[in-house]
# Entry
Amino acid sequence: MAQMTGAQALTRSLVREGVEVVFALPGVQIMEAFNALYDEPSLRLVLVRHEQSAAYMADGYARTTGKPGVAMVVPGPGALNATAALGTAFASSSPVMLISGQIESYNLGLNRGALHEIGEQLDVFKHLTKWCGRTTESSEIPTLVHRAMKELTTGRPRPVEIEVPWDILPSQTEIELLEQEVYPKRRPEPAHVRSAADALAHAQRPLIWAGGGAREADLSPELLELAQVLNAPVITTPEGKGAFPEDNPLSLGTIYNGHGPGHHVVPQADVILAVGSRMHMVPPVDWSPQPHQTLIQIDADPEEVGRNIPVTTGMVADGRLALQDLLAELGGKTSASQWVQGDLNSIRNATKEEIRAMAPLQVEIINTIRQELDDDAIMVAGTTEVGYWSHLAFPALTPRSYLTSSYFATLGYAFPTALGAKIGNPNRQVVATSGDGGFGYASSELATAVQEGLNVVTILFNNESFGASYADQENRFDGRVIGTRIHNPDYAKLAESYGAVGINLSGHEELGPALRDALKANSPVLIEVPIPNLVPPFQISPPGMARRT
# Structure
């Protein structure tokens, strides 16, 4: 034990737990923590311009590195500002820790109107986190941080939130720091492994369905080996993109909003192995798994197994360990699969043609972006018409290389999330796609990007509107347009005013050379691309379904 303040216990505990970066914005209740950071050179402090961005950056850092991402904010307005990003991290199963200040411990629960007071702040976070906690004793801070890290690194990764009152941070006492622990991953039940292996070994048309849990389990080598052993094609969700290389002959691509290869391949499968996917189909489609098909589901979260579709065999386990055990049980190549490469090529080509027919301009733009990027480049697909279609048309080739906002679909997340990804991956190319409406949410983080020297390239598609909502009004509300057209600045000049590079293109045809040069820059780059109003995939009926109204 040693004499130290609560703030010192907090920062030293983060260091002991392996934290390397803290994304934060200062404020009176956490200034003691900032002062403690001054004496911890191994902890990199990234100063942000908005608390929402702090949590988004922590999320981008976490999902692309596999390490916990840490954000720190003041209570009340600061904590509330972070909630949209925390919701995104929750939906995306991302290991994000939010450290929030709190009002004075002696004012907790009294509703006196203390600075930044919320009646019970922990209640705000209960549905946005896997776990949240508070301490009112400086000596308990190491235990609080340790518990938070355990929650982040065991089972299904999801955000946590911890709180330390204002007066506890400067409080000095004898405090014992704790050592980092490595927690064992959960293996599947042997009986479940045997059952699943038997079904897969005898499957005539096995299919692998990989979701975001496949990304978080870092099981790409095992997934590739299993697909080859079974001769099984692989489809992914947008959150699972990159877990299986989409240039592999067994990859059929991504399913999203009823589009993609699903309607071609799922009805043909006799055994489906779902890894790290909740299998929630939006909209409901007639090609979702049926009772006559054998469904094997692997998930770290017991609540997800069988939640949306009844399963034949459910395995609550770490995905990587489950696949290792399956491979061991199979013991080598099986011969039951009747898939032939010609059939898979036909499905892949038919899917590409369907997508190209629905979104020719978007596909052209997405192909241009892909051509200019390294295989391991990180793409952050924003909530924009190009970003939506990139779920279907952008080939992700390596693990942890493609980020979405998952079912939370948060507008404005892409740019700050990309900054966090770049902090965690300084040697990888990082590109974000954004709409003009979404970019406005966090445009001030251009200052953060310049201050940190981050060569993040943001491709901003400008249609002078909140495009999906505008398209909805045009197509579903008979052109009764209201509140969806927006006035924009000159984005190139805006970027330049912060010290970044700004590029205005006259058309999308100029994007390739502009992106090529931007990736070589030593500063953040914003490329503005004018585009017409386009229709997102969720406003187009999936194949075989009547148009939704």
